[in-house]
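User: Hi! Is it possible to get a structure for several chains at once, not just one? Here's what I have:
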Amino acid sequence: MTVLARVSELLDSQQINLFIGYTQKGSICPLFLKESDQVDKLIFNEDCLQNLVPYLNKHEVQSFGKIGIFCTFSALRSLLQLKSEKRFSNLSIIPFLVISDDEFVEFGSYEEIESYIEKNFKKGDDNVQEMIDKINLMSTEEKWEFWTNELTGCIKCYACRSACPMCYCDKCSVEINNPQWVPTASHSQGNLEWHVMRAMHLAGRCVNCNECFRACPMDIPLNLLTSKINADMEVAFGQIPGTKLKLDYAMSCYKFDDKDNFIR
Amino acid sequence: MSRIGVFVCHCGENIGATVDCKKVAELSAGLHGVVHSVDYKYMCSDPGQTMIKDAIKEKKLDGIVVAACSPRMHEPTFRKAAQESGLNAFLCEMANLREHCSWVHLKDDSTTEKAFELIHMLVEKVKKNKPLFPIKVPVTKTALVLGGGIAGIQSALDIANSGHQVILVEKDPSIGGHMAQLSETFPTLDCSQCILTPRMVEVAQHPNIKLITYAELEAVEGFVGNFKVKIRQKAKSVDEKICNGCGDCTTKCPIKKIPDEFNAGMGYRAAIYVPFPQAVPNKPVIDRAHCTWYLKGGKCGLCEKVCPTGAINYQQEDEILTFEVGAIVAATGFDIKGTDFFPEYGYGKYKNVINGLQFERLASASGPTLGEMKRPSDGKTPETIVFIACAGSRDSAKGIDYCSKICCMYTAKHAMLYKHKVHSGKAYVFYMDIRAGGKNYEEFVRRAIEEDDVSYVRGRVSKIYERNGKLIVKGVDTLLNSMPMEIEADMVVLATAVVANHDSEQIAQKMHISYDAYHFFAEAHPKLKPVETNTAGIMLAGACQAPKDIPESVSQGSGAASKVSCLFSQDVLTREPLIAEVNRSAPPLYSTCVGCFLCQSVCPYMAIETEEIRMRDGSLIKEVARINPGLCQGCGTCVALCRSKSIDIHGYTHQQIFSEVVALFNRREEYETV
Amino acid sequence: MKQFEPKIIAFVCNWCTYAGADLAGTSRLKYAPNVRIVRFPCTGRIDYQLILKAFENGADGIIVSGCHPNDCHYTSGNFYARRRWIVFKSLIDFMGFDNRRMYFSWISAAEGAKFASFINEVTDSIRKLGPYTDYSNLRKIGVGSIGEEL
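Assistant: Yes, the chains can be modeled jointly so their relative placement is included. Here is the combined structure:
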């Protein structure tokens, strides 16, 4: 059975009320299917990189109740991480990992996702690691120069926030104005604080889907910040976000011997 | 618009001599929102407090900053004053001008500037303070006394006699502590056991005391009035209820050569043993580290065979007992350094160099020599004996800077006891100073010198070594032109330093109380709160706090008991409302909390619960976190963890701290223009 | 010319470092008057954004200090804080913040002397570094420089 036939079947039998996949309209973009009549518009190829999971956080989408969705590997991790953070309690989700037209994995439970991720775990993007390594080699001044230059371009459109599967707060703390934590003017300082805050919120939670970078209209490599600290955290604490169904959040646990050589 | 009052205290000269208090008060008057600013010699005095109260009423203040000493000292004083004049207590903040400024800096403009800045920070903070109301919690009127030495015994008896329940936990098989080991006590030379054992029996028979021996503290949870403690009852391997204390097992046990802790290693005991004849409870325990049955997989079993009541139970296991108590008295006692701590005195390898506790056992009628003066190596009566005071104490090279306090007195006592038993003997005491402050103490030392002819030599002993069966003690007499001295002694007694128990650090950590650099437990205030700790509901008694003699330990035991009784005289306690809370807001959000519950696992008190927000028809809107105000202790770890800043902590809110930090830097120009 | 005097802010916990600073006071130890202490119930309460706020408003140096591991009055607040510092430090080092201006320490209630010498040491080294302007200067850069609020 092809993946499209399976999606039609699920929609027709009302095992799902909505399917979220990709289509081509000039560029690749998401497609929301309520009925099977347009199933042939669904495509899947190596350019289908967008993490569709963030849509599952939207109340409008959640109102469908039973949803099928195309997932990349990192999207699967984000599903698992979100579930561990008590998301989707009244949602039934059928994720598909598509390999080719007639080769795909359909997941019946979160446990299946967990074991699939464990068996098929792959490190993040090599290009990302290469960039991180490059920045690591810079001097403090060069790093500062690099990031202030990059972040000066930020227009605070918050596309990074909207695209991120892990940003699901009802009210983002960047919008708190009493006190005004993050300066509202889009000068570099406000930009920098926003991105420090965003990265800290994703520490121990980022699944390296790189969606923030793809969403950024100013092409700021935001994914480097989150990827970098999560790589460091993996080394320091041995925890990898989006690999465990049970909550395994590195910032809410500790070891007696966490390294503290910088603490005097 | 705020109406803040600033009250700058001179604390006599303590602040006034270094900080220009008048100028600070003038500058503070210029701060935004400050409508009243004065300085005064002693704010904590009656006129000072009246000044504050009057100003609150007259100027209709809605917040005050008292710039004086540490809030850890006088915050309750000034909060009470505020409360009395109708201002909510939590609208009072203190700027720490004394401990954090005047005492640590020189008289200089920068010190005055700092004082003003500290005030400014707190003025900005107090503007954001909200009235708070104390939380009422019930009190469990049962006390836990930890340690069955004389301090713990006294404490337990006093609490029990005031009509409250006491659980007395002792780590050894018997209560009595170090006092039970002593021969005679200074300055009266009455027999230690004779005065102690009636108290021990009283504990055992008291209807309000539950005695648990051979047990250790496992964990403490909760807070004042509502602690939950776990006690590990170590397996005694003897069923106490059945055992009749006949002692057949201890006499038949084939393993008899175990160095006896009660006799400070000077004698031997069996693997199944009662520590001493007057032990309470007088029931044996099996020392599993030495018993053949445990070491050789079930062999021997002699004690089981001879026991007439069948009380031996080899399979008994450690048991965790849980109790709810309202207060805890820590009376875990002390230890003394062994002779092996002293390389210059032979690293403990000379048999005839012993420490003070070992001498107590030698001199005791119940000791291994039945009170006869016999030296350990060959049982001969020592004709020349040298006592060395300050062995380790007051010696920074040994890492012990403090005075062990009891050694001067017990060394004088030892020398006297020796002279009373060996009339022809010669006793020398090497000392640094004689510290005999205490009722009849100085007279006691004079008696040792004048009536019992003990030779006191002011000077230190540099080395001890053996030669022809004698101990050669090399020292100097600093009162005789630092003349080198060499004494051929038969025995040497080191008054080794009193130190904290080896596990006192872990015990403090279990109770969440502070301890000092030497691991003695820290009192809440060195002078005014010597019995309480910084953790409400936990008191200290005896030498776990610092070296103490018997009368002091007993006094503090009674002091701790009276603190506990005060606490138990109330049915409801009030607790500071400085706890965390999850925000609530208007629909459709209801709360900015999204219910990720990442905060749940950081809470050390498991105070974070799930709350369901429902429509009137019962349908679920969302699940959010809720902080149980009875359990929250106000650490604020959840506050800093929450991404959406949905949790805030009263007294240290986001707004308060933010204002405090920002104030510090935004004032530069202001300061210059004033 | 007058010597540059750095502004240093210390975020400390109430039970250990604040009490340690009190002990430095009662022991009359002398240290540089450049530090301003902000009291928190526990290091676990200290928000990394406050560090940014302090730099934003012109702090030249920052100290964060609390109870030694195992000494936390609340059992484990300092352990969570330590993890947060490890992660925060990894991030800001990567972003090129001047990490010589941020100090983390464990100072217990018994360590008045450590508090005093630590403050002196930090003040000396930050005095040598001069004023910290990298962060506050960011306000002048960017499309929104017209939006300078203050």
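Residues 183 and 189 of chain A are 8 Å apart (CA to CA). The first strand of chain A starts at residue 18 and ends at 25.

User: Great, thank you!
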